[in-house]
Amino acid sequence: MSSIRSLCLVLVGVATHLCCFHRFEHHMFGGRYFQLIFLFVTAHVTNSTLNYSKSLQTALGNVLVLIALFLNGLYLSLIFDHFFLSPLRRFPGPIGAKISNLWLSLHLRNCDAHKRLFALHETYGDFLRIGSSDLSIVHPKAVQVIYAPQSKCTKADWYDLTLPMVSIQTTRNRALHGQRRRIWSRAFAEKSLRGYEQSISVFQDQLMRKVQAAAQQPINVTELLSLYSFDVMGDLAFGESFDMLRNGEMHWAVKLVDEAMAPMGLMLPTRLLTTISFATRGWWRFIVYCCQKLDEVIDDKKITSTILTTLLEPYNGFTPSARQNPDYIPRLRKELAPHISVNNDIQHHPLQYLEHLNAVISETLRLHPPVSTALQRATPPEGLHIEDTYIPGYTTVWCPQYVIGRSEAVYDNARGFIPECWSTSPSLVKEKGAYAPFSAVTILPLTFPNYVLTTVGSYSCIGKPLVLLNIRSTTAKLIMKFDLGFAEGEDGTGFEKNTKTQFTAAPGDMYLKFTER
């Protein structure tokens, strides 16, 4: 092959990058690109063997050289752009991350993105370039700028993962999101929540009986509360429980959730997740199951208290940090005692105004956020400013709550468990707008008494009222009915040490002993 022809192929690769991949979103077309390459190889080999009498081996070798030259030009242009021309070139970060988003994925074999990002921010500071066009930001003011209602940031391309299926959670269209949110909001009004509370209480009773039956034997509370939470979700979403508390094992459909979320822990680029079919096989099998169950509900006209399964986290109803800090449990019991009815029941309504209970929950969510790393947003074309730092347009940004929750720039004694920062000592929170456990900016009306956690934002978790109802009431009932203690050989460190980030957090095991009071 002549040098001129080779150079032309390299230049075609450069031009392809500059004209196509440099300007437009192309993450949904990975499969198409492989198909085009396959068609080109097939056509070239067929033409060479039939019309030029070349051997199959020679024809295949020639076409692979052509493709290699083209890809060399494309990737040389891409790497040069990322290093020297990218508007993000001045932001610090690992060299490999500047070349490709795959750098981070290759360092997440243990699905510990929250820990990896924490270490990287310790090294590089508040603004971390973590991909070719990605920034991880833990500046105290960043959450307000990126996630607040007035923000011009939109959902990033990661949310296209489920296309062609579009939900209120994944749609990137603001108008469509607003329309669907208005419809869904009726399902979380106060009247609806009272109905959900009655349904949840059935499973809380099952949970109490399960704990009671253990009779001081070590219980893996991570597993037990996962069974409980998914039973609740099954009942509220489909009108029937998975019966996992009764059977003592995971339902096959719930196992699909674990299978579906595992690839998320690698934080692979969207183009790979959508191209590699086996990476999302479990996810789509679970979607098919959900659609079938919803069809059954609609056909049977059992549309009562149904909600989406994504509205509750796998460890609802438990505050692990409170167990690791037992001094707070007597204070919780003292606060809860006046709200126990004559039949020893606890209603949720008064719990939402209990200062110490809500402070303990808020502090737990600070240290153990349900979504600990990447709620990805795309900056507007004109870019944005975080104080004196300019973030260019079309940049994917996120604010990892796990890292922010441990930032001394946001909290005093950031790595300690101090519920008082949400109640009697609000000055310990230096930047209140940085706290966002429910996908958006959280407003903290720190007036006492009657501390209430509220969340605002275009994409804030619409199921937050139900999540908090479940956490408050389940925590209250467990604490009032049982004394809690670590099982022999348990110190609670494994809960966080073995936590995995799979978009949502998957906590490590923790074994406790429960003694009925």
Automatic annotation (TrEMBL):
Pfam families: p450. The keyword Acetylation does not apply. The chain crosses the membrane at residues 33-52, 59-80. Keywords: Heme, Iron, Membrane, Metal-binding, Monooxygenase, Oxidoreductase, Transmembrane, Transmembrane helix. One of its GO terms (molecular function) is heme binding. It is found in: Membrane. The keyword Ribonucleoprotein does not apply. GO terms for cellular component: membrane. Its cofactor is heme. InterPro entries: Cyt_P450, Cyt_P450_sf, Cytochrome_P450_monoxygenase. Belongs to the cytochrome P450 family. PANTHER family: CYTOCHROME P450 (PTHR24305), L-ORNITHINE-N5-MONOOXYGENASE (EUROFUNG) (PTHR24305:SF112). This is Putative cytochrome P450. It comes from Dothidotthia symphoricarpi CBS 119687.
